[in-house]
Fold this sequence. Notes:
Blueprint: E1 2-7, H1 13-21, E2 25-30, E3 35-37, E4 42-44, H2 47-54, E5 59-60, H3 68-75, E6 81-85, H4 93-96, E7 103-107, H5 119-125, E8 130-137, E9 147-154, H6 161-184, H7 206-209, H8 217-226, E10 233-237, E11 240-247, H9 257-260, E12 274-278, E13 281-285, E14 290-298, E15 304-305, H10 306-312
Parallel strand pairs: 1-2, 1-6, 2-5, 6-7
Antiparallel strand pairs: 3-4, 7-8, 8-9, 10-11, 11-14, 12-13, 13-14, 14-15
Helix pairs in contact: 1-6, 5-8
Amino acid sequence: MNVVFMGTPDFAVPSLQALLDEGYNVVAVVTQPDRPKGRKRELTPPPVKLEALNRGIPVLQPLKLRDPEAVEQIREYAPDLIVTAAYGQILPKSLLAIPGHGCINVHGSLLPKYRGGAPIQHAIMNGETVTGVTIMYMAAGLDTGDMISRVEVPIADEDTAGTIFDKLSSAGARLLRDTLPELLAGRLTAVPQQDAEATYAPNIARENERIDWSRSSLELFNQIRGLNPMPGAFTLWNGAVFKVWASVKPKSGAGSADRVGRASAADDAAPGTVLGMSDDGIEVRTGDGSLWLTHVQPAGKKAMSVSELRRGAPISPGTVLGV
Length: 323
């Protein structure tokens, strides 16, 4: 049986490896074009491409999958099954119709919740305590296909988008390995999604990254960890971008102010006001208390602990972030 695998980032690599390690005949890999990265904007191949080339598998990198020529290139490999994982483009109907066993997708959420391109980030930003992976048949809509199998993965307070990304990547590969034999033997029945229960997780936009200090401390804590390690939550300090990479989870109903014992003194401060700074962090007024920032990144600098920042450029109490 010929399998075509479609994926792009690190998330997809374990799924490709699982197919190969289980002996499936992966005849081609489709991934996004090489993109410029880093300060030098060097053209960089996607992780899936590197893995495919390392395994001696032909790689296709169409700019637009809806281009009929791209579809015909894939058709030439006569796939019986197409497996996708974080590929990054919607498959056209002409491609979905090619493989006899259909097209299946390894999606990083418990569908129908968090359909879209950034399910991991949005799940954490929304304060979810459980996420997971769903394997589904692909359909013309955005992550709307019938569900084949799923597995749950808990989200702990210390998790970030990066740690959950790794956990779901591994969980998805294991689920794919366990699901495919049963699916191909006809022993699984796909279940339609309940569209009324659907939520969406669009790609992260700039407005998702900016910290609104009038929100609750818990919401900001989740936003910060949901955007770590990419692209990062940010505020402004002296008019320049000031990224925040980590904070302390606030205690219920009290922000972080109870940690330093001056919630009453902060009651009249505007959201975004720096209430204090020590080697442990920066205390900033929020909509319902305060939040303790522990790892930050001033414009033009590397990410650092607040103790490092304090030695070089301390922030005076009374400074208002975000302006």
